[in-house]
Amino acid sequence: MIAVTARAHTNIALIKYWGKADAALMLPANSSVSLTLDQFYTDTRVAFSPQLTADTFSLDGVLQTGAAVAKVSRFLDHVRDMADMDLRAQVQSVNHVPTAAGLASSASAYAAMALAASRAAGLQLDHPALTRLARRGSGSASRSIDGGCVIWHRGIDDESSFAEPIAVNPALDLRMIAIVINHHAKKVSSRAGMAETVATSPFFPAWAQTAEANSQEMVAALAGDDFKLVGELAERSALMMHATTLAANPPFTYFQPGTLAALQLVQTMRAQGLPAYTTIDAGPNVKVLTTAEYVDAVADQLARHLDNPITICAPGPAARVLQEETVDD
User: Fold this and answer.
1) Whole-angstrom Cα distance, residue 103 to residue 35?
2) Are 312 and 177 a contacting pair, CB within 8 Å?
3) Domain limits at 242?
4) How many CA atoms, within 13 angstroms, populate the side-chain half-sphere of residue 4?
5) What's the pLDDT tens digit per position in 86-129?
6) For residue 91, what are the β-bridge partners?
7) Angle at 312 between CA 308 and CA 313, to 5 degrees
8) What is the CATH number of the domain that holds 154?
9) Is the pTM of this model over 0.90?
10) What is the full DSSP assignment across 141-188?
11) Considering its fold, how many domains does the chain have in total?
């Protein structure tokens, strides 16, 4: 048997995915568009072995139990079905990104696991199939198989819901600055938050319809040379997504005071002539979209006015295998 270690980078959605059309297949209610980041990633090693009687999973050196292991096992079941085998696996993951804090750790985690597990099981999946496999672990993980900007197509079934890279005009030269408002795990998981929103928010149908249209608009905007349009679409998508949670029953929000302070600061900076736009996933942390030309000036203003760690990110690479090693059966 072989053990495979793979690395995948996080991605931040410019047009958000929020809500499932099919929870069993992890089909989204709308297409989404993202930017893969170079500074945040997950390394995952997977080794199947006949000596194991159950799957094991460690995260950042800590052996996991209960629900965390069960979720990984359910994902590995898809790999086992595809490979027509029933061996258990040892999974070891290291997150170079705060876990479950709205910085897309699940995206990088399951993209890395999809690549490592499929290769360790002897599979050589084509690109669409690999993105579909990653999707079964975490919807946004389908987008972390690729670098740069990516679209995850909504689709209508397992075959048609996949991700692929999209063209970006080199003149845009995008950069994203991550502001860590709170690095702790969020109280409402993305999966639970989505389910509650879909079930109870009267805003959700309008959100899904608008987000689908915005995804196509964003693809066109990225291929062009209009950063203002890219930024406006991204910021509006994020705020619309969070509006659906405020309308859920009971209402909930991922925003914290620091989130609002960062939003207001970026709006002020933009009014003063700096091209910068915010986006926020399911968590309190704010990401600021700008360009290489202005990223240092934007970062300087953020550091001057906010007492929060910031990380400047460029477009990141596609998921890749770091190591393959032979292990004893």
Assistant:
1) 12
2) yes
3) 1-329
4) 20
5) 999 999 999 987 654 456 688 999 999 999 999 999 999 999 99
6) 46, 57
7) 135
8) 3.30.230.10
9) yes
10) GGGGGSSSEEEE---SSTTT--EEE----TTT-EEEEEE-S--SPPSS
11) 1
